[in-house]
Write a structure and sequence with these properties.
- By secondary structure, the chain is an all-alpha fold.
- Helices cover 78% and strands 0% of the residues.
- α4 packs across α5.
- The longest helix has 27 residues.
- The termini are far apart.
Length: 196
């Protein structure tokens, strides 16, 4: 009716205004206008590509910015289910869903940035769903520890893993563990994951 037509007209007007502003911004940046501005934009894009190629050693590794962007997008879409599932699982333990969503997002983003910037590794890192399920169903719902005690234990175990990783003890531990146990453990994990 009349109010629906006004709403549609407002939506179209906002859409046109938004696309017009976007086109104006792109034009001001030199994407549509004069050759002088286009030259500046081309130089800026080339400088950015050179910086990214030098910092991440893309050409040495036989990849491009476009390939890495597509791989990062695929990794994000693959891991994004955690943003929906992890708060639901932790919510059953008594964690507020907004807090669980924020913790999942921040921990995943910070781990990915640390691995990408400091380690120069293009990997996607996120909290393990199995560990969230163990915290909820194996610990908290069993009634043995409270939620606060379980989260404290999780915090201190993370600190311990960080210390072991930074100190170099992981190399020593990997040399101490026999090769057969390492292979058996990996294949056992694969079999368990396959049949779950």
């Amino acid at each position: 009716t009349n109010s629906g037509a006004k709403r549609t007209l407002r939506t179209r007007s906002c859409w046109r205004l938004g696309t017009g502003c976007f086109a104006w911004i792109l034009g001001r940046c030199g994407f549509f206008l004069s050759s002088k501005k286009a030259t500046f934009t081309t130089q800026l894009l080339q400088a950015t590509q050179n910086f990214l190629d030098g910092f991440f050693k893309l050409s040495e590794r036989g990849t491009t910015i476009g390939t890495e962007f597509r791989a990062g997008t695929a990794s994000f879409l693959t891991l994004s289910y955690l943003l929906l599932v992890n708060p639901q699982i932790l919510g059953q333990a008594g964690v507020h869903s907004d807090d669980a969503l924020l913790a999942t997002s921040v921990s995943s983003a910070s781990a990915c940035f640390i691995a990408g910037i400091l380690g120069n590794l293009p990997v996607g890192l996120a909290p393990g769903l199995g560990l969230s399920a163990y915290l909820t169903f194996g610990l908290v719902e069993s009634g043995k520890p409270s939620l606060e005690d379980a989260l404290s234990a999780s915090w201190w175990s993370g600190i311990l893993v960080l210390i072991v990783g930074i100190s170099g003890l992981t190399r020593i531990l990997m040399h101490v563990v026999p090769e057969g146990i390492k292979k058996r453990d990996c294949s056992g994990d694969g079999i368990v994951d396959r049949h779950d």
